[in-house]
């Protein structure tokens, strides 16, 4: 994209493009930010990254890119050559574009390929090749989340617990978290909040969620009616106090209603992700079995 603007210095048209942005406009912007004590987005790449992604990574929150990086790191630890690394990634559902200047890969479920080097420092082909040759060291990439069950879980409580286990965030971890599940790790806080809600209210089915939501919706309807009446008599001080109380009650009730709706929706998504994860696991076992048979034949 090329656009024109008028220079304030000499009145001539200024022709701007992506290159001039990073060499001129970005430089001026950074200088102004430093002058007035504003934050600067630091990046060692010429290509910009979306603000939401940058902010999430600055705050240490996982993103779909962090899921890919984790798969790369795990594959590097299991590989002793570049070709073995490519196969390890393919087992995880990735596809490659290799006959080009910059190697690109596509993660399961993604529509487009991305360049390895766009994942940041240490993720270019050269860096990965170098890491493959280094001694293998066992690493832990995620913090443990403690959610001990009080009893044997059933229904959607068990579903959520199984999902968190497959994510690899519980004390006892799976051998490897499937990508179909780990790509959802950016919503980990939501998933933990949801299972805590289910356990707090002893809800194990979607039908119980609907039953729990029904009286809340009735309360909301009644409070809305009361609030409309108070609005007609807004001159009374006592009415204003009650309005404030009603608004706070409505806020809490609506929050609980939204939670039940989200759990209904997300529990279905979780079931589908676990199904895909099981398919991926079975495919990997078949590939490993074929490789073993091929080695034995030799």
From TrEMBL:
Pfam families linked to this entry:
Relaxase
Question: Domain of life here?
Answer: Bacteria
Region Disordered: list its residue ranges. 274-298
MobA/VirD2-like nuclease domain ranges (all copies): 1-38
What's this protein's name?
Relaxase/mobilization nuclease
Source organism (scientific name): Dorea longicatena
Q: What is the lineage of its organism?
A: Bacteria, Bacillati, Bacillota, Clostridia, Lachnospirales
């Amino acid at each position: 994209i090329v656009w024109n603007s008028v220079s304030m210095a000499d009145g001539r048209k200024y022709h701007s493009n992506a290159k001039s942005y990073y060499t001129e406009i970005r430089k001026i912007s950074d200088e102004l930010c430093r002058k007035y004590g504003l934050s600067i987005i630091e990046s060692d790449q010429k290509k910009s990254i979306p603000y939401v992604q940058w902010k999430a990574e600055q705050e240490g929150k996982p993103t779909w890119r962090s899921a890919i990086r984790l798969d790369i790191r795990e594959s590097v630890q299991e590989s002793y050559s570049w070709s073995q690394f490519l196969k390890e990634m393919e087992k995880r559902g990735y596809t490659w574009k290799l006959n080009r200047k910059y190697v690109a890969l596509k993660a399961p479920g993604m529509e487009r390929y991305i360049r390895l080097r766009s994942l940041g420092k240490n993720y270019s082909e050269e860096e990965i090749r170098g890491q493959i040759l280094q001694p293998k060291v066992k690493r832990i990439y995620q913090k443990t989340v403690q959610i001990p069950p009080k009893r044997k879980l059933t229904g959607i409580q068990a579903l959520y617990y199984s999902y968190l286990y497959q994510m690899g965030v519980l004390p006892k971890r799976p051998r490897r978290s499937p990508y179909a599940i780990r790509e959802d790790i950016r919503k980990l806080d939501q998933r933990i909040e949801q299972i805590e809600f289910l356990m707090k209210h002893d809800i194990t089915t979607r039908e119980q969620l609907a039953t729990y939501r029904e009286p809340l919706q009735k309360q909301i309807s009644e409070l809305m009616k009361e609030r409309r009446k108070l609005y007609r008599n807004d001159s009374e001080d006592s009415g204003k106090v009650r309005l404030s109380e009603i608004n706070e009650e409505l806020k809490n009730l609506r929050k609980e209603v939204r939670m039940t709706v989200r759990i209904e929706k997300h529990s279905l998504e979780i079931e589908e992700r676990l199904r895909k994860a099981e398919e991926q696991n079975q495919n990997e076992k078949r590939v490993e079995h074929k490789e073993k048979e091929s080695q034995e034949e030799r």
